[in-house]
Records
---
Amino acid sequence: MIKITNKDLCTGCCACLNVCPNNAITMLSDKEGFWYPRVDESSCNNCGLCEDVCPLIEGHIVTVERFKSPRVLAAWNTDDTIRLDSTSGGVFSALANEMFSVGGYVAGAVFLEDHTVSHIVTNDERKLDQIRSSKYLQSYSGEIFNNIKQILEEGKKVLICATPCQIAALYAVLGKDYQNLVTCDFICRGVNSPKVFLKYMDMLGRQYGARPAKIKFKNKTYGWHRFATRIDFANRKTYIKDRDHDLFMRGYLTTNSFARPCCYNCQFKALPRQADITLADFWGIERHHPELDNDHGTSLILLNSEKGARFFGEISDKVFSKELTIRDALAGNPALFDSLEYKPERKKFFEDLDAMSFAELAEKYFPVPGRFSEIIHRCTTGIINGLRKFLRLLQLIGYHPLVWWQFIYINMLRRATQGKLRLGFVPTTYCRIIIDRSARIIMNGVLILGTKENRKSKRETRFSLGKNSSITINGSFSIASGSDIRVFDKGELILSGGYCTSGVQIVCFKKITIGYGCAIARDVIIRDTDAHQLIGPTHQMTQEVFIGNNVWIGNRAIIMKGVTIDDGAIIAAGSIVTKDVPARCLVAGVPAKVVRENVQWK
Ligand SMILES: Cc1cc2nc3c(=O)[nH]c(=O)nc-3n(C[C@H](O)[C@H](O)[C@H](O)COP(=O)(O)OP(=O)(O)OC[C@H]3O[C@@H](n4cnc5c(N)ncnc54)[C@H](O)[C@@H]3O)c2cc1C
Ligand code: SF4
Ligand code: SF4
Ligand code: SF4
């Protein structure tokens, strides 16, 4: 019979509850609001099954075949509405939709009417809206593992997303891996006390005069980095505060005051993972790969098994992904290996929990800084960040006054420069720039023009925008010196994220689109026009070019008018591409033909 000798280890996973043949186990909440198993000794026949499955008893973790070094990807759902509604890049929703589309079941966490969180398993795709998004309090597993086992035994497919300790519990109950099961966990910072959360909801309910009807953590109104908590009340009022000002998030992120005791010494943080796929926020991506961050949310994905990689492959047309390294992943996500830091105030916080209101607890343990100190803090960080940006600009632009004038004029003084980002157009020395007054520059990202591969190079970079033409920058894009970018009258050029090395020519009469994460090598030519009209009825002089995400174009390749190159394709050096290239195919030759399928590059 299970005996909790050390409460600090029990994760409340409910594996023991699922296997007890006599229903002798119930989960009861303690005074902190976390549930633990209680055995009714009169119903227990000491069969020992509960101990056999407890993942915390040494040796009881079920071994499943996983890669020692997982494949690491940055990814997001290409449906921006779903991406914005999700916690990070919305990859979970793409996986769930895929599972529903093959008639399978999806298990995940939902808010219940009483504002607690519980896991459900369903084949009703309308429930995805409720399952989507992280809930930062512990989700009750109940008998979900038995339900999943039954569905799997019937030969149906199941996708589950849960904490790593819940995934370990699932395997413990199943006793083995199933080919029709795909498991997702996430990099887990720890789960919080449902009791504390209910206290918080109670306070907001009273402040807003109605009960909270919809709760959303990590709402992206202020962007993914400055995520907010949004609560819609039954009386149609709305509460929304960012991570620094929402009291629950502030307590969770700054003091770790109300996480479950086991989360301060988590036993599920190693590599290899147990789940087939690990999902997370790709924190830190903006530092190493700014082109992969537009503040809508970028997911970090670890593919831990063949099965996980195969299932992820099924959604390749629904998500953008780029292969990176585990070093990139670790840079901003220490929770992959590190548990929450235990602070002595946690004990005092729970001693005060019943006696104080939530507002009083917040004031005592994680106060929002006063207006004055916040202004000082904002000013200092603003000045430091401003200085950093200025130094970086100085490095790129140099000291030449003409280049600074171009920078100021294009970004600040031109009427037809628009977009979310000011100061995103960065010319460097030796750029010859001709922009018609009517040409629109839409800056949602950063364009660096004329980067020098050789510091002392004086190679000229040409950039021209004709009458009523437009250029849209969506991510971070750099164009090396010696390149020649020409957008003719009414032409439209869209650059998302990536780079051109030196000597690249882009000739745009109508429309050329280049997706995220593209690498365009030296002396490549991309053109959507023949520039001259053949006499005769059939010749179409100009046709749009579309280059998808994560495409690599080798030296001196030529991309001709009317071509679509799908995500992840590779164009070999010297090829002339006259026909469409399917996703993840390598093409070579003149004219280019597919020589290999299912390729990947990094
Ligand atoms: C408590 C918690 C802590 C986390 N800590 C980190 C972290 O430190 N670093 C990091 O990079 N990412 C962390 N994440 C993961 C991150 O928030 C995203 O869930 C993940 O990146 C997937 O995002 P998505 O946009 O693909 O899908 P989403 O739509 O956000 O999918 C979320 C999935 O997680 C499940 N889920 C939500 N809440 C819970 C819960 N309380 N318990 C179990 N399952 C739940 C849902 O069922 C859904 O399937 C944490 C998530 C949670 C719930
Ligand atoms: S020993 Fe057997 S009967 Fe007793 S609680 Fe555990 S599983 Fe149930
Ligand atoms: S099986 Fe889970 S809930 Fe039960 S004792 Fe072990 S850790 Fe706790
Ligand atoms: S931090 Fe560890 S113990 Fe806590 S919920 Fe996450 S996986 Fe479970």
Note: DSSP finds 16 helices and 37 strands in the chain.
---
Amino acid sequence: MGQEHVVVENLRFTYPDGQQALRGVSFRVAPGEKVGLVGHNGAGKSTLLLQLIGILRGQGSVRIAGLDLDDRTVRRIRSQVGLVFQDPNDQLFSPTVFDDVAFGPLHMGLPVDEIVSRAEAALACVGMSDYADRMPHHLSLGEKKRVAIATVLSMDPIILALDEPSAGLDPQGRRDLIALLRRLPQTILVASHDLDLVRQVCDRAIVMAVGRIVADLLPDELPEHEALLYPQDASREVSALAQGAAPSLGATRQPGHVRGSISYSTRAKVGGGTDVGETA
Ligand SMILES: Nc1ncnc2c1ncn2[C@@H]1O[C@H](COP(=O)(O)OP(=O)(O)OP(=O)(O)O)[C@@H](O)[C@H]1O
Ligand SMILES: [Mg+2]
């Protein structure tokens, strides 16, 4: 197996207004792994994804495919990680759908033939070939979401980071998206409240609560740990874990097991004196 694609160590981030969004996040993703990022509203999922390409920068470290994220590497990293934003309006700015999807390859300096074939293939992938000449801002939300995914696919990144990709899609669009994510060869990180999508697409589910990673599970284990998805309950569960309680959460597992249980390193961190439920 090659070099790990994502290595995040003790990442902390506070927004300028004082809102502490990440409180010491560490995780690794291997090449080709598909990882779901789940957790309540405000848990820190979008903030974390924005850190992967340096749109936001916190303390701690982010390493992408062997490159430490810093001012010198940020451009290269952005060509390797395709981030699909939670709001497609943040991603689409060109006069036509085709221009938006061709924008990435164009700025990679590729030959015209290659730009066109990549843009066409990416639009076909998301079922939007017939929309190439439309104005992005006149599309429906679901159509915009699909085009936003195409703008990233056309760059052929090694890692795809998608923020709520199924939100706003109709049932057929959602089914197509799931099929697409399943067949893509890239390493995938997908932040989503759509637990069924996570179960169908991902090998692993990282659960965030109040700016921390509180569990690293197999997607099929999510239903039995549903409490972690509610901010008040997650705080209680994690506090209980820090005190050695919460027998339902991996109590029989051995330290060092990460998947399928609350990680013991999380226990140590929570037990180290910071209440997961505190607010900044
Ligand atoms: N621009 C901002 N300025 C200040 N605080 C912010 C900003 N964006 C997010 N936050 C705060 O940071 C925390 C994490 O937000 P984030 O958007 O990362 O959560 P999330 O897990 O993606 O939530 P959701 O499921 O609603 O998308 C929240 O407390 C949120 O209020
Ligand atoms: Mg979000």
Note: The pocket of adenosine-5'-triphosphate (ligand 1) is lined by residues 15, 17, 19, 21, 39, 41-47, 86 (CB under 6 Å).
